[in-house]
Prior knowledge:
Helices cover 24% and strands 33% of the residues. It contains six helices and 15 strands. Strands 7, 8, 9, 10, 11, 12, 13, 14 and 15 form a nine-stranded mixed sheet that branches. It has a six-stranded antiparallel sheet with strand order 2-1-6-5-3-4. The radius of gyration is 20 Å and the shape is globular. The two termini are 24 Å apart.
Amino acid sequence: xxxWINGELREENExxxxxxxxxxxxxxxxxxxxxxxxxxxxxxxxxxQRLRRDALAMDLTLDFDDAALHSALSVTIEAxxxxxxxxxxxxxxxGDERWNTTVSSPSQADLSILAISCATPPLNGLRLxxxxxxxxxxxxxxxxxxxxxxxxxWLWRQARQQNFDEVLLCNNRGIVCEAARANLFWVSRGELxxxxxxxxxxxxxxxELLLHxxxxxxxxxxxxxQPGDLSHADELFLSSSATGPRGIxxxxxxxxxxxxxxxxxxxxxxxxxxxxxxxxxxxxxxx
Length: 287
């Protein structure tokens, strides 16, 4: 694998950051993951805008302008011969003012870009597990796509080991928040519903796009919802920048008493199918 780091394309074993950087020691960093379609990264401007916003929130300096980052993405994708897959930009702090005191400013950061080929995951019939664990809605840096991502990744892996495709998380108030690696949508009573950002969910790029596209079809309701509200849904789907919308076929809730309740839906539903087609059109037009 070829990795772009701090302005240079290097072989994987030569693309390194310090073991005592704040990124390594503390998970102090931000990232964004883009889909790659037909050899090109998708919705790059939106991703770069969010990366800059999140870097500012975590006091990190991004030393490259958008033109340089566009070029770096293209070079990395081409060097790894990726036609369909993902690319990721990661900005991690160098100094932590304790273990690495040689860095002149805590805001100095390393920027790396990876690109990999991967098969398209199932787009419909996903099985979703409702997690018994909770996330804090008003946690520091809520809404920032931080590299301190282990809790979400751990929950996703636990769900995968039980043959689920994703895990649905509620916040500390029992309000539906997000999936571990995606935003959640559903259609209910003629409205497109999704958790409001104050729930603690990530303001995803795909979330932003789908809300914009769907607004011409249905009223949008961003609100505070209980898991039980999903039982009234006509269709559910997840969204992420790497995949676009993906239809949910089942939601499984296991209680502390060992009981299991499963809600099922046809997938994809009409709006899910329509948004999948729009996603494909928008990404295919990048050729």
